[in-house]
Specification:
Helices cover 32% and strands 17% of the residues. With 193 residues, it is of the alpha/beta class. Helix 6 packs across helix 7. The chain is globular.
Length: 193
């Protein structure tokens, strides 16, 4: 079946949390948004109001749910466990410099995560979300987390999950995926609102 090349996917990383502000890896630790994170999520409201979405998916973690709700899409939100952040295992709550004291040159995209997920496991979750998106009859909005969404864009482009290292993603930014002709493409990435 041919893909609907008119479809667009708006991808939103949750607003700022205390740990995202401080560079701590945050997976299943269920932190709320900071005041700045709430402001960033509210600032998305005029943008999302311009769109009709046939599907709105959010990670069940409160930082993603709150961002979705504050952006004005809470009534349409469907929770999706596949959008939970990359599970960091023993690195939960640690910064990259802290991890590199033990494992020089460590990155989430190039090194193992003790007790956590592999890039392939995260990619498999992203692929399931992409399958749902391709079945949806129109535009889709996603609310999730930084590293997972970096893998997601790689998989949207049919690239290996490790290529997510090239897609830096700030909190509360505009990100649009779609098509150029028949080819999946990034239309807007990490744009300020």
């Amino acid at each position: 079946m041919a893909e609907d090349t008119a479809k667009q996917v708006l991808v939103f990383r949750h607003g700022q949390t205390e740990w995202s502000l401080n560079g701590k890896h945050t997976s299943t630790t269920d932190l709320p948004l900071t005041d700045e994170g709430r402001r960033g999520a509210v600032a998305l409201r005029p943008l999302v109001a311009q769109w009709d979405f046939s599907l709105v998916l959010s990670s069940p973690l409160q930082r993603a749910r709150q961002t979705c709700e504050l952006s004005g899409l809470g009534d349409a939100m469907e929770l999706c466990d596949d959008l939970i952040e990359w599970r960091y295992g023993q690195y939960e709550g640690k910064t990259t410099p802290e991890i590199r004291q033990q494992v020089p040159d460590w990155t989430i995209f190039t090194h193992p995560v003790p007790g956590g997920e592999t890039a392939a496991a995260v990619a498999a979750r992203c692929d399931r979300v992409i399958d749902r998106i391709l079945q949806a009859p129109g535009n889709v909005a996603l609310f999730a987390h930084g590293h997972l969404l970096r893998v997601f864009v790689s998989r949207w482009l049919q690239l290996p999950p490790e290529n997510g290292r090239h897609f830096v993603l700030g909190t509360s930014t505009l990100n649009r995926l779609g098509y150029e002709h028949e080819t999946r493409a990034v239309l807007t990435w990490n744009a300020p609102i």
